[in-house]
Amino acid sequence: MSLISKRRLPLLFLAAMLLAAIVALIARRNPPPPAPAPPVPTEPPALSLLAPPPDWSSLEAYQDSITREEFERLLTTIFTTGNAWREFIEIDATEARIKTGNSPSDETFQLRFARTGDEKPSLRNWRTPSELPPTTPEKPLAGLKIAIDPGHIGGAWAKMEERWMVVGDGKPVCEGDMTLLVANLLKPKLEALGASVSLVRDKPEPVTSIRPEDLQTLALDSSDPDDSPAKIQRTAERLFYRTAEIRARADLVNQTLKPDLVVCLHFNAEPWGNPNAPTLIDRTHLHFLLNGAYNDDEVPLADQRFALLHKLLQRTHQEEAVIGASVAESFADRTGMPPYLYPPESPNARQIDGNPYLWARNLLANRLYACPVIFMEPYVMNSTIDYPRLQAGDYAGLREVGGKLQESIFREYADAVAEGLAKHYTFARQPKDPKQDGR
Length: 439
Description:
Layout (H helix, E strand, L loop, with lengths): L2 H27 L38 H12 L9 E3 L3 E5 L8 E5 L32 E6 L7 H4 L2 E2 L7 E2 H18 L3 E4 L16 H6 L7 H29 L3 E5 L20 E6 L10 H13 L1 H20 L14 E3 L2 E7 L2 H5 L4 E6 L8 H6 L5 E4 L2 E4 L1 H20 L11
Parallel strand pairs: 4-7, 4-8, 8-12, 9-11
Antiparallel strand pairs: 1-2, 2-3, 5-6, 9-12, 10-11, 13-14
């Protein structure tokens, strides 16, 4: 290396050091922008088992359809039993702000209130009596679409459903079979009054294609680690007949049948213990259930909160209350059954309009069916009063049962429902003027 090159090395080194120092100084004065933080994962909203996430945008159709006063009245006196709703629904003079999930980062749905007198009509598939065409006194249900939902499944499924019992050598009592029998008696009675009637279930088979074995994984995931295989199997079975089955019926009602009213037929019971040696009680009673009374464990679930608002905004409650009162009156007059009374402080029920026969309850069927629903709970299957009549089966006319002449309990049930509906719609609809059809 030449002497000149050796002399240049220290100068080049100093220049490089100086350049590095200048670059570092510039970097300190103009630091690069920080790397973007990774997105915080959004947890899915808390949902009931087998429930799909709600489509909150569908509530846009109810903007400006209800006043603040009416919204708050229905929310606090019919649709809830506690104060958990306050964590998810904020109300001011002009709107309700509703959380669509359970975390602060979740979106909020804003529902605008209407001014009194400026309410827009609520979007719905069902019709009120005033929206039906005029009719005659002989056909008070003309033009009305009714779906009859025979509760439970019955048949080979009755024992799994825990709606089966037998006393000694008597005939087994299967609720699902009895509700289907009543449905088949009720249908022609309503059709004779002019209604178009569909059965949600017309045989002792499930509507859903899902079976308990399809729900084993979900049952396992929702069970405690120390649950036995038998307990996990029972969970899968209950998910099948209490949840999957009702959701399948709701899909049929909402997407295909689209009725103006659903009548859910049930028979009540009190705890009977061993179904092969059931305890019989010496009382009977009657009550009807309307949608409402969402408790503080249900409101935090996004699907139930959505269903609450959907029912409230559709105004199903107003229709259920007047129809239910009419059917309850006919039933009570015909049977003399006393009302079943829930405890005054029950978190699961609210009495409606002071009527001892009408109660708001949040059941899956009356929550999911997108129309007014009357959920019926007459008689007590393990009652010493009603059990002999159930054993007597169906028959025409009167027969001595339980020491007195009585009609078939199944025909009495069907007649009471038909009479109550006829009474309501006769009163609520304008009779047809014969002059209008040229007579």
